[in-house]
Design a protein that fits this description.
Blueprint (H helix, E strand, L loop, with lengths): L1 E2 L8 H5 L5 E3 L3 E3 L9 H5 L5 E2 L1
Antiparallel strand pairs: 1-4, 2-3
C-alpha cells in the first residue's frame, strides 16, 4: 500500500484495516510488516489517497 501526499489523516483506513496495520499521525502510516495488501483501506478512503 502506498499513501499519497493528499492524505489528510481522516482515519477511515485505520478503522477498516483488518490487520491493524495503519496508524495516523497527521497522515496515514502503513506498517509494511503487518499489511497484507488486501486493499480494504483503499476502498474506504474518501479521497483516494491510498494506492493498493
Amino acid at each position: 500500500m502506498e499513501v499519497l501526499e493528499k492524505c489528510v489523516g481522516c482515519g477511515n483506513c485505520v478503522v477498516f484495516c483488518p490487520k491493524k496495520a495503519i496508524k495516523t499521525y497527521g497522515v496515514a502510516i502503513v506498517d509494511k510488516n503487518k499489511c497484507t495488501n488486501c486493499g480494504i483501506c483503499a476502498r474506504y478512503c474518501p479521497i483516494d489517497a491510498i494506492n493498493p
